[in-house]
């Protein structure tokens, strides 16, 4: 109430945010802090030129959202609050520290389907791509932006096809740069999967994107989630074009099929990995030439193993 009574006074908003921040470590205060997120975001919007207030507000939001995620509470932001966050994002486009924090906030928020859809309606995709191009060197920003891109791209009502198509080269550049960083590679692979699901790739994208995803699998064999999402992304590519299927079979760095078999054996207890692999094989056998090659590589043997491992799935 103190903050809402004096929106126009920056010092009041700053003191209010600082005072709220003093409750963060008290777990019993969490339900009350959760009701303050919109007040914090509106304070940031009202005093958008004050970078100090933006940083303090963002730090507090991160604390609250981290606790919310730990407790399984999704933050469903309405459209006006989503547009407030984007407004602050656009006002400080060059401040790397602030953007890193705000992109993390956006990632946490976008875990809610409602919030992801509201961010999409507010026009976040061009902003994400612009940030990725400018801060490709910042792994935290790349990780967060790709995660938000995934959430926004898979939201149901998607009318941003042309904008999403422009995300393909940027997301590929992130994956190429961070192939050896499993955390960022996983996020970028998920974003590429969402873009492939949306049919955003062109004929010239299928082969290089398939090769890039295979490289991500090669470099991060221990990461089950990356293996799963990589296989799902490849399946979406193969559904679109036989070129992608042939790129998997004929990858110059070694057979993609052998790679996928090896990675299944590493994660044979993970139903998600097995399911993604089966989905990929199901897409590949739609092409006669590819199916003959899979037979020669004894893929039936592996599929029988999976059937024994998961008889009730």
UniProtKB/TrEMBL annotation:
Its EC number is 2.7.11.1. It comes from the Eukaryota. SUPFAM superfamilies: ARM repeat (SSF48371). InterPro entries: ARM-like (IPR011989), ARM-type_fold (IPR016024). It catalyses: L-seryl-[protein] + ATP = O-phospho-L-seryl-[protein] + ADP + H(+); L-threonyl-[protein] + ATP = O-phospho-L-threonyl-[protein] + ADP + H(+). Gene3D superfamilies: Leucine-rich Repeat Variant. It is an enzyme of class 2 (transferase). Keywords: ATP-binding, Kinase, Nucleotide-binding, Serine/threonine-protein kinase, Transferase. GO terms for molecular function: ATP binding; protein serine/threonine kinase activity. This is Serine/threonine kinase-like domain-containing protein STKLD1. It comes from Bombycilla garrulus (Bohemian waxwing). The gene is Stkld1_1.
